[in-house]
Write a structure and sequence with these properties.
alpha/beta, Nucleotidyltransferase, domain 5, 2 domains, 9 helices, 10 strands, globular
């Protein structure tokens, strides 16, 4: 049995998980509600909250797993990308704990971990993708189509040239004065709305790349112009506005993913990242794959947003290769 403690602290959630081989024994997450007051994550406040949360979160994860700290075989942590102050808290704690237990340290890339969350085996009957497969990685900071050739061999074949899909969701929510975090609220209100009430033009970008900057701007101007004639426009049309902007964003994402599947001939399609928690994206991907005779792989909701379980599964595959890191390692804010 291989027990690994994984720590995720890339943004505003402090998370710790224990994995035994490829099965998660515990996955504890402490959220930081202080950011709701500011309409977004405040980096300094985030790093301070991580310092307060990390010891009780790790302690609870070990207790929930039903093991002792001296049974751990390795400590894993998120190296990046993310907020540097937040990453430093997790990295420093992982180094210290690994040194005190005299066990290996494993660094994990946050984006790779999102993709590898598909390999967490919660049940023996669970289907996992086979290589090669395509993964649409969508989050607040990244939107990419990745060709997965192996656990750590991947090729980006399409990506955003400006803003990420998650940023488009969050910006639309902010324009409508929805509280932070806005993405889940757009999803919630969209369920009661008509996605064809308001039509927004799709960006015309060649190849497999994305663009969401123009869509954000057009949505801003659309709301501004309608508020001039009706100050209650947002409140009276909130559900339809959310459904319409969500519909166009998902259209853009899936059209490119379908195009990539046809170009590569790969019929296994996965989604990962925070936006993969969006219910409409999950439903539309499954519907599309059913219609095309392809396979869809959708992560469990709790593995979609930032969590330590995904760090743990990536660390497990690195442990098998004895891919350990040294104590002088430093985190990075931007993906390489």
């Amino acid at each position: 049995m291989t027990y690994i403690l994984a720590i995720e602290s890339s943004c505003d959630d402090t998370s710790a998980a224990i994995i035994c081989n490829n099965k998660i024994l515990s996955n504890v997450i402490a959220n930081q509600q202080v950011h709701e007051l500011y309409g977004g994550v405040v980096p300094e406040l985030a790093s301070r909250a991580h310092q307060q949360n990390i010891i009780p979160v790790v302690d609870l994860a070990i207790k929930k797993a039903g093991i002792q700290a001296n049974q751990l075989n390795a400590i894993a942590f998120t190296k990046g990308p993310g907020l540097l102050g937040s990453l430093l808290v997790g990295c420093s704690f992982a180094k210290t704990f690994a040194l005190s237990l005299n066990i290996p340290l494993i660094e994990v890339d946050h984006l790779e971990a999102h993709i590898l969350s598909h390999f967490i085996k919660d049940t023996d009957e669970q289907c996992i993708p086979e290589f090669p497969f395509l993964c649409l990685l969508v989050s607040g900071g990244h939107t990419q189509i990745i060709l997965m050739k192996d656990y750590f061999t991947m090729e980006i074949i399409g990506q955003t040239i400006d803003d990420a899909a998650g940023e488009a969701f969050d910006k639309a929510a902010k324009i409508m004065s929805l509280p932070y975090p806005g993405g889940p609220l757009v999803d919630k209100f969209a369920k009661e709305g008509n996605p064809y009430t308001f039509l927004f033009s799709e960006p015309n970008i060649s190849g497999l790349d994305f663009s969401f900057s123009g869509l954000k701007t057009s949505f801003l101007y659309f709301i501004r112009d309608n508020l001039k004639t009706n100050p209650n426009f947002i409140e009276e049309n909130k559900n339809d506005l959310c459904a319409s902007i969500q519909h166009i964003i998902i259209n853009v994402l899936l059209k490119k993913l379908i195009k990539a599947a046809k170009q590569t001939g790969i019929k296994q399609l996965a989604i990962a990242g925070g936006v993969s928690a969006n219910s409409a994206l999950r439903d539309r991907l499954k519907q599309t794959c059913d219609e095309m005779g392809w396979e869809a792989f959708i992560p469990k909701f709790e593995y979609s947003t930032d969590n330590a379980a995904m760090i743990a599964i990536a660390a497990y595959f690195k442990f098998l290769k004895k891919d350990f890191t040294k104590l002088n390692i430093s985190p990075y804010a931007r993906s390489k």
